[in-house]
Amino acid sequence: MIDALTYAGAVAAISTICAVVLGLITGGGLSRAKLVLFFVGFILLGYTTSRLWPRSPSDLEDEAALSGVSGDSIPETADQTRFQALVASLPPKRWFPAPPPEDRINPAGKLFFGSLAVLLISYLMEAAFGI
């Protein structure tokens, strides 16, 4: 779960930085950044929902398909993106050993948590800070 929270925090931080820079460049300030975060959050939410949706009813019966692991506990995608490698080097994830492959949340699930974090930041900018 630590890896998912670190991933969600990284997605939210990068999205927020990009939205603030875009808002300042276009002259909209933080209110435009809040709007960009809102749309980015919902686009990510839709994308990850479609990635997490089972392809067929048999996917729900297969435990390996649910965990994102196939065969002898080897992840479906062995390669790691640069972003995933960056997140793996961030604290607190780097302080803990990696869980076994069958206990890991797949990348689409981590991105789902990231989209919720982006939407939370957009909400907090409006409700808590009055932007």
TrEMBL record:
Keyword Transmembrane helix attached: yes
Transmembrane spans: 6-28, 35-53, 111-129
The entry's keywords: Membrane, Transmembrane, Transmembrane helix
InterPro entries recorded: DUF7555
Highest taxon of the lineage: Archaea
Annotated protein name in UniProt: Uncharacterized protein
